[in-house]
Structures are given as C-alpha cells and as structure tokens.
C-alpha cells in the first residue's frame, strides 16, 4: 500500500571505501606523492583543512581523522587565533604534515601560493563570521586567506557561530557572495551553542561535512547553486491506535543521499523526513513528519520559491478511517476490521497544481516508483498518470532498495528520455537525478 523510495546506483565513480577526487598529479604546485607513484598508484587527493577561531575547532579533529583514514593527504592551515582552541602539535600529529599559520613560515616554499595551488579541495571548518567576511572581500592577511585566494579547486565552508551572527545581514551578504562565486557554504545546524544559547549556528556533524566534501571532490561543482530544492524521504506511518500503525520498509537512505549530493552541488535544501533515524545531512533544513497528511502539508509549505521537488518518500496509499484513542485489546471475539480511506496522492497533486498554475508549485517534479513486478511497464504508466517530469523506477523486495546502501534504477523522462543506472551507491543515483534536474532547470 505504499509507493516510494527509489534505489540507487549510478555512473562509474571512485569506490566509496577509498579516497575520492581529482588528484593534483603533476599540476604545478601539487605536493609530490613519490611513494604512491613508485608503486604505480595515483597520488592521494590533497585536502587543505582550514580551521578558524571558534569553539567548534575541536570537532575539526574528527573531520581530519575521517580524511586521513580514507586515504587523503591533509594539510591543516589554522588561523593564529584557532591555535588557542587546538594547538599546533595536535594538528601536526593527526595530519602527519607540518602546520603553519603565517605566510612568513618556510618562505622558500612560497606557502601562500603553493598550498592553494596544489589542493584538490579546501574546506574551512569551522568557518567563523570573520573568516567568511575576509574570504568574501578577498583579504589576504594570513596563510588561510591567501590559500583561499589561490585555490582553483572546490572550496567548502562549514560555518559555526552564534545565531545572531549567522543571521546578521553582513554575514548573509558574505555567504551569498561566496556562493555566487561557486563556493559551497553549508548552512549551520540547529542545536546547543556555547553557554546556554541554542539556535542555528552549530557546526554540522563532522561525518556529514565529510560526506559533502567527498561529493564535492567528484568534480561536478556548484551547478545547483542558488537552486531551492525540496526532498521527501523515509516512510509514512498511519496510526491504528497509539501503539500500532500501517507503515512500510523505507529507511530514508535514498532521500538523504539526494539531500547530501544537492548540498554538495550548492543547493538550498529542505528535507521532509518521515520516520527516519539518520543523522541530519549537513546544510539541509530537516522537517520531521509522521503521516502522509503531515508530509503533504510540510511539502506544500516548503514549496514557496522552490525550483524542484523530489518525492523519494514511501507514502502510504491508505490510512485508517478512525484511529483508536487507546490501545486495541485482544479479545476472544477476534480482531475488529480496520477500515481504510485513501490518502492524498501528493505527487499527482503537485503535477495538477503546476498544470493549473496553482501556487506554490515547482518547475521540475521528480517521483519515485517502487515496484515488485512489471517494473518498467508499471513505471511508464505511473509517469503518465502522475504528471511529473522524471520518474525513478526501481525494483524492491528480496533485499533490494529498502534499507540497502545501493541498488539499480531506471529514470524515465516525460520527454521520452531514459537513463539506466546500474547498481551502485545511492549517492550515485542521486547525482544522476540532479544531472537530469539541472538540465531541465537550465
């Protein structure tokens, strides 16, 4: 009684258990990896981890560990003030590379130019309001800002600051400037800040920042910068009583993969999550819901000025007419029948709203079809019935799709386009979907 989460897979890409990127190789200024070349291996992707002076600097140690343990060569470039939070010996020990903050350190190596030139990725975590401002205005008063000016690779900022600082018009203007130039600025998370304060401004989970960086290293760039995207994920639950519900097996993994890849490509993402127990994707605004009616309301609320919506959630087709207020007891008479009523068809409604010009509606609509048999035939019929631009069709059951890290799918277009996505990580399918969405938005 559900329709929903697609599976994944994608174009050939670097394996997920190793370093990902476009290694600098013999590019001028790139650090040599003589041992790797001697063994016939490509040089490790070179990552510059900038650390600015925020209390969240200690979390960057975890981000550094994730990079080094996955095979990346990391050079840490902290600001002078950042060393008051985490000292130079810690960064040097964890990275295996020397640490400098000043352009006058090791002048003969011209570090203010060479570090940025040789990088495959620069990530600043945490990025304070001060560093964002200096980067936006092209200032170069220390080694980190010099590195940002010379880098010609993907640049990711993970801001962390108090809510008032993040919401200040100056910071918002600086963020907009950086994004216009192609940098990926991850919106901070909501949570506990320093002292007793709580709000938006918390550094996202280091593992989620790492996932954004991994996607950025794949080289698609910020082609979705300025786009507002709405994604649904997970599976709805329709209450029978306070204890029991009608549900489905969707884990939300595909929707979360869509959110991560969209953020890594520069988009502003609202993720409507139905009963998902996964860490919030860094940079996405997460709205949590339970039932199909709640999901519909949240999606429509998020559609204001949205460019595209991807309905990856598995939405229950039916719900009980009258849920019990208390737990249904087992009796000798046997169970009472559960009378069902049809839920709204959210995907079809979005297509209808667009046809009728009823705002809000998105420019591009993407649906998912989870099928157990006659997969393509059912998918083609659903594509025609729903009025969406793209439909991701996949086979579910017997260990496929739900709860798995990978799968295969076919993306059908209303214009007749058809993209077959072989089995692979769900992030790869997400990138294929965003490639097709970007084409239609352009």
Could you explain the architecture of this structure?
The chain has 14 helices and 21 strands. By secondary structure, it is of the alpha/beta class. α2 crosses α9. The two termini are about 35 Å apart. Its EC number is 4.1.1.36, 6.3.2.5. Pfam families: DFP (PF04127), Flavoprotein (PF02441).
Uncertain parts: 1-18, 21-32
Q: Tell me the quaternary state.
A: single chain
How many separate domains? 2
| Intertermini distance | 36 Å
CATH class assignment of the largest domain: Alpha Beta
What is the CATH architecture assignment of the largest domain? 3-Layer(aba) Sandwich
| Adjacency order of strands in the biggest sheet | 13-12-9-14-18-19-20-21
How much of the sequence is in beta strands?
Answer: 15-25%
The main sheet comes to: 8 strands, mixed
What is the SS-derived class? alpha/beta
Number of helices: 14
Shape: globular
Global mean pLDDT: 86
Say how many strands there are: 21
- The Cα radius of gyration reads 24 Å
Level of helix content? 25-40%
CATH topology name of the largest domain: Rossmann fold
Give the name of the CATH superfamily of the largest domain: CoaB-like
Supply the key terms.
442 residues; alpha/beta; Rossmann fold; eight-stranded mixed sheet; 23% strand; disordered N terminus
What's a quick, concise take on this entry?
The chain is of the alpha/beta class. The protein has two domains: 2-11 and 223-441, CoaB-like (Rossmann fold), CATH 3.40.50; 34-216, Rossmann fold (3-Layer(aba) Sandwich), CATH 3.40.50.1950. 31% of the residues lie in helices and 23% in strands.
């Amino acid at each position: 009684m559900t329709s929903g989460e697609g599976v994944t897979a994608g174009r050939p890409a670097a394996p997920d258990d190793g370093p990902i990127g476009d290694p600098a190789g013999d590019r001028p200024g790139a650090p040599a990896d003589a041992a790797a070349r001697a063994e016939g291996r490509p040089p490790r992707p070179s990552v510059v981890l900038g650390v600015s002076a925020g209390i969240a600097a200690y979390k960057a140690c975890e981000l550094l560990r994730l990079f080094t343990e996955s095979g990346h060569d990391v050079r840490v470039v902290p600001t002078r003030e950042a060393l008051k939070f985490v000292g130079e010996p810690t960064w040097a020990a964890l990275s295996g590379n020397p640490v400098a903050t000043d352009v006058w350190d090791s002048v003969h190596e011209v570090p203010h130019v060479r570090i940025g030139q040789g990088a495959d990725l620069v990530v600043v975590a945490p990025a304070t309001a001060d560093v964002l401002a200096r980067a936006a205005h092209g200032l170069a008063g220390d080694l980190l800002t010099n590195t940002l000016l010379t880098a010609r690779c993907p640049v990711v900022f993970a801001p962390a600051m108090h809510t008032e600082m993040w919401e200040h018009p100056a910071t918002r203007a600086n963020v907009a400037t950086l994004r216009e130039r192609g940098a990926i600025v991850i919106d901070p998370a909501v949570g506990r800040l320093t002292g007793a304060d709580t709000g938006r401004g918390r550094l996202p989970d280091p593992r989620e920042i790492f996932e954004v960086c991994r996607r950025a290293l794949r080289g698609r760039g910020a082609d979705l910068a300025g786009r507002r995207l709405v994604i649904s994920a997970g599976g709805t639950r329709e209450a029978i009583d306070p204890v029991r519900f009608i549900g489905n097996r969707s884990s939300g993994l595909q929707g979360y993969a869509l959110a991560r890849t969209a953020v890594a490509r520069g988009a502003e993402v609202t993720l409507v999550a139905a009963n998902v127990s996964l860490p919030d994707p860094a940079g996405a605004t997460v709205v949590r819901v339970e039932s199909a009616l709640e999901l519909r309301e949240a999606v429509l609320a998020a559609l204001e000025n949205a460019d595209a919506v991807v309905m990856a959630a598995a939405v229950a087709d039916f719900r009980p007419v009258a849920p019990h207020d208390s737990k249904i007891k087992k009796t000798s008479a046997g169970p009472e029948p559960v009378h069902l009523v049809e839920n709204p068809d959210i995907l079809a409604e979005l297509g209808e709203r667009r046809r009728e010009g009823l705002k809000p509606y998105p420019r591009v609509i993407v649906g998912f079809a989870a099928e157990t048999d006659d997969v393509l035939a059912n998918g083609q019929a659903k594509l025609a019935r729903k009025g969406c631009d793209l439909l991701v069709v996949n086979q579910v059951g017997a260990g496929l799709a739900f709860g798995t890290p990978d799968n295969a799918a076919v993306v059908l277009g209303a214009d007749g386009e058809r993209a077959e996505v072989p089995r692979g990580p769900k992030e790869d399918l997400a990138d294929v979907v965003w490639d097709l969405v970007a084409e239609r938005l352009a």
